[in-house]
Amino acid sequence: MEPIYREQFTVTEPQSDRFGRAKPSALLYFIQQAAGNHSSLMSVDWENLAKRNLFWAVSRNRVQVTRLPRLGENITVETWPMPTTKVAYPRSVVAYDETGRELFRSISLWVLMDTRTRAMILPGKSGVVVDGTLTGNELTVPRSLMPHPMEQVSHRTVGYTLLDRNGHMNNTCYLDWVLDLLPSHFHREHPLQEFTLCYLSEALEGDQIDLHWELSGGPNLTVDALRAETSFPEGKGRVFSAQLLFE
């Protein structure tokens, strides 16, 4: 099997914003689909892992955008697993347009979760082996995003249509929530250049999530998502954090 997997996608209407550009969440969808299909070829896909009471979950995503593809545009996604670390399975992605020019690239950290306990299983204890490749051109792994007080707050609820086969909110939906914090005229004037998402705990159906956010010079958007939980200090638990850089 070739270490680098390639797959073509076409940007569809539901994946496009009001300006005819691919939604940033669509980039995560392409990344997720290519990774899943490559995992099937390596026999570490959802179905095979479910037999071992395991499933894949993304813990971090970093994406650099050269250009958002347009509605109807065909893109080629290349993806490959990098060498496994003590705690995660990194995966790299580069996407190109039909002329071979780069559209976006990413690095994501995948972890294995137990379907029964919902606890993370370290690679050394999982029995899941993924051979990694390094091309020398991969993005660096994003650091964790530290929380800090932010004045703006938006309230959201996890509903049925946001859930995936693992029973939690799909990683692509977090980014839609984040981008909805800013109006259309901002997105028209400021295309997204780069974003980092850190997934800290599962968001389950019915969860009430508070998005604490601020827009600073750059412009940069910072978001910290909290859920009301009595077991956490001050009654709050972090669900995810995000940092976005716009033109």
CA radius of gyration is: 18 Å
How many strands, what sense, and barrel or not for the largest sheet?
A: 11 strands, antiparallel
Q: What's the average pLDDT? A: 93
How many domains is the backbone divided into?
Answer: 2
Portion in helices: 10-25%
Topology, number of strands: 11
What is the level 1 CATH name of the largest domain? Alpha Beta
The assigned structural class equals alpha+beta
* Secondary structure tally, helices: 5
In CATH terms, the superfamily of the largest domain is Hotdog Thioesterase
CATH topology of the largest domain: Thiol Ester Dehydrase, Chain A
How do you describe this structure in short?
With 247 residues, this protein is of the alpha+beta class. The chain has five helices and eleven strands, in the order βααβββββαβααββββ. 17% of the residues lie in helices and 37% in strands.
Describe the structure in your own words.
The structure is a single chain. With 247 residues, the chain is of the alpha+beta class. It has two domains: 1-142, Hotdog Thioesterase (Thiol Ester Dehydrase, Chain A, Roll), CATH 3.10.129.10; 144-247, Thiol Ester Dehydrase, Chain A (Roll). Helices cover 17% and strands 37% of the residues. It has five helices and eleven strands. The protein has helices at 24-41, 46-50, 123-126, 171-179, 184-189, and strands spanning 5-10, 54-65, 74-81, 89-96, 102-114, 120-121, 152-157, 192-199, 208-216, 220-228, 236-246. Strands 1, 2, 3, 4, 5, 6, 7, 8, 9, 10 and 11 form an eleven-stranded antiparallel sheet that branches. A hairpin with a 3-residue loop joins strand 9 and strand 10. Helix 1 (24-41) runs antiparallel to helix 4. It is globular, with a radius of gyration of 18 Å. The mean pLDDT is 93.
